[in-house]
Amino acid sequence: MRSVVSVSPDVFEMGSHETLPISFDVTQLLLVAETPTNAVTSLIQIDSGTDYGAGHPTTPTIQGKALIQTVTALQIGKRYRLIIQFDAAAGKTWAPSLLIACPE
User: What pTM did the predictor assign?
Assistant: First the structure.
């Protein structure tokens, strides 16, 4: 079972020249004995529907209950959906996502 979770803010604006670590605190998604594992990232370019691999050149890291993905090299005028999927327990997968706009 995979559950998609939207995060706050609804839309995050980021410049094409920026390289930023984006962190998802998943504490509220986990039960007491659970920890995030097996994190994988997709950065979907909204207009094409394809993964924009150049925008997430590294693998996500897990620091405690935070999932961190560096995002870079976005294209001006494009919108992206950053999804970090992870396992919380056997058979329990979450996929928090963030909409990223690149206006400049």
Answer: 0.90
